[in-house]
Structures are given as C-alpha cells and as structure tokens.
Amino acid sequence: MHHIVVNYQNKSLKKKLKEGRRSADSGPHFNELVPAMDGLEAATVDHFKAGMVLSGAGDALGYRGGTWEFNYVGPDIHQELRELGGLKKITVQLPEWPVSDDTVLHLATAEALITGKTEEKLLDEVAFCYVKGMKDMSGRAPGNTTIFNVNRLKPGEQGGYRVSYNNRGAGCGAAMRAMCIGLRYPNPDQLSSLVFVAVETGRMTHHQPIGYLGSVASALFASYAIQRRPLESWGVGLLEEACPIAKKVITDSGFAVEENLKDWDSFSKHWKRYLDLRGISDGKGPVTWPDPYGVAERDEAYKSFSLSGWGGSCGHDAPMIALDALLGAGSDWEELMNRAAFHGGDNDSTAVIACCCWGLLYGTKGVPKCNYSRLEYRDRLERCAEQLYTLSH
C-alpha cells in the first residue's frame, strides 16, 4: 500500500483564495497520511473521460426515457432488464436511451468550468449555462425546483446567480450535476475551491443545506476518486473536512445566513446515521452489509435513507446511494449498475454520480462498449473531460 499526503493545514486555507475559493480559517486542519486505494494507477485523462462519459451512460440507463426512473419497483426493472438480454446487450443510443436532465445540467456545469473563469465571473457563467441548458429539456424530466429557480436566475446582472432561500430545496438537482467540480479541483489543497463552487452553484437552484450539500458531496467524491482515497473514508471526509468549509462559505457570503444555519444539521444527521449503519463512521470499516441485500432489500434500504420514500431524490441520499453502490460493487461495472441504476428510487440521479466516480477509479475496463459508444452527447462529455484535465493539471 502506498500513501498520499493530505495536508489541510496549509497556506491556501489561510488567505482569501483565488479561483473561486474563500478563506477557511475556522475549518478543520488535518495533517495525516491517507492510504491510497491498492492496485489503481494514477488518474489519467482517460479516467477523466471515462468519468464524464460513464456518468452519462449511467444516467441514460437508469432513466430509460423515463420508464425506469419512474418505475418504483426495483425487481420489475430487473425483470425488464433480463427481457432485454441483460446489460451487455443494451446499446445506449437515441431514441430509446436519451440522457436525462441530470447529464444536460452536468454538462452545463462542466462547460462553465472549462472557460477558466473564476469567482463571480465563474458563477455568472454557470448561471448562464443553466439557463441555456433548460432549453434542452424536452423528454428529459427536469425537476420542478430546478425549473422554478433557473427561471429566476439573471446572469449578467449583479448577484444574478442568487435565488432566495427555499425550505423545499432539498432535492437532488444540485447533487446530480456537480461531479465535474471535483474534476476541476481534484487535489487536497483545492478543497476550499471545490466546496465554494459546489455550494454556490448548488444553491442557484437548491438553496437549502440538504440540497446544496449534496452538490458538495458529489464534487468531493469525484475528487476523492481521482486522489484514490479509500471509499470507506469518503463519508467521514464529507462531514469532517468539507462540511465545515461549506458552513464558512455560507457565513462569509452574508446571504440568507440565518435561514441556512437554522437547517444546517439535517444533512449531517442523515449521513452520520448511514455511516454508523455501514460500520464506516471511523473512515476505515470493514463495511457492514445486511444479509440478504438483493434487489428488493436495496429498494427498502434506499427508501429508508430518503426523506420522502423515493430513494435518491434528495441531496443527502443521492450521493449516499451512489457511495453504497460503489462500496458494494468494487470494480464490477454490472454490479455497480444493479445497485446504482436499477432500483426503484431516483435511479438516474444515483447512477449519474456513482458512474462518474467509478469511471474516474477504473476507466472503461470491463464496460461493454455498447453501453457508452453511441451515447448522446458523448463528444461533449469527452471534450469537457479533456479540458478539465488540462485545467486541473
């Protein structure tokens, strides 16, 4: 086992930071050796491309033109999958397998990031790209909260990327489009940049802590995948390293601070419960699994993680189910899809996150080419990946 040094007590956390960063003086200061995942080569541009493309493939597979996203019975989806000949027989292409709103808005985030803009100019560009992206929503089932708030963005105006606080903004719409932020800021010393951008872009539509902290989780997990950080430590890193910085971003912003702090603890409460359930609250494990934990059992587990009974539909449980799938699947693509995409919850949103992280970890090894070679917007996804790799390196 080799190690990477993760030093969070560095100068970049103690000054007003450029590239969309903010001071994190009150945040955590870690200086520790975090073991890297065994047997994985360092992330290359091909891993970045796999992350972006497989994210879209997972989205399209989970969505299936809306018929699987809105099928609430996981065993029924698996039966239909068998009737199609299994995952290896599915060619993901139009018209049956379009990407959903998840990938369209993930691309919007990525295409704003690759402009190289920073701080306020970056946030304005993201708002512009979200407004533009919403014109490409025919047949893609965008969420009501996203529709409502993108209509209120005013890119080009002072503070035009801000929307008011929303008690009902806890959905997964921010989480599903944030992974590319981790590709732009993949290094441990860029943590404050990552969190700042994830919070501020997340609350453009989902201005409630559960909503935009889901954005932080997705971005963070992508960066951890690039760092080869052990999966068992991702949840603890989210709570102990990223969330305190996110809180500082909110208080420093001076915008809707009181409302946000009032509801702040709900996200962490759900995550602490999950980490205890899986035996990884120490960041090490071993992971504790129910027995059995098949398709029907996962449906029930995912419901129990949720606020509404639709697993993966909120900011906390979409990345949570993605992590659960990654922990259970290892490097097995088909098993990942069984856990992350083919269930009775908001399956395209859990898959879009899980498959991005899986691609960053393992590339396209073991993935049937028919699952991604004809994917809608594949060229755009690959182009974004290449430019994010260049910017981050």
Verbal overview:
The chain is mostly helical and 393 residues long. The protein has one domain (45-392): Orthogonal Bundle (ADP-ribosylglycohydrolase fold), CATH 1.10.4080. The protein is 52% helix and 3% strand. The protein has a two-stranded antiparallel sheet.
Number of separate structural domains: 1
CATH 2nd-level architecture = Orthogonal Bundle
Fourth-level CATH superfamily: ADP-ribosylation/Crystallin J1
What is CATH's topology name? ADP-ribosylglycohydrolase fold
Structural class: mainly alpha
CATH class, please? Answer: Mainly Alpha
**Overall spatial form:** globular
Strand order, biggest sheet?
1-2
Residue share in helices? 40-55%
Number of separate helices: 16
How would you spell out the order of helices and strands? EEHHHHHHHHHHHHHHHH
Distance between the termini: 25 Å
- pLDDT < 50 runs, ≥5 residues: 1-33
Largest sheet: 2 strands, antiparallel
Count the strands?
A: 2
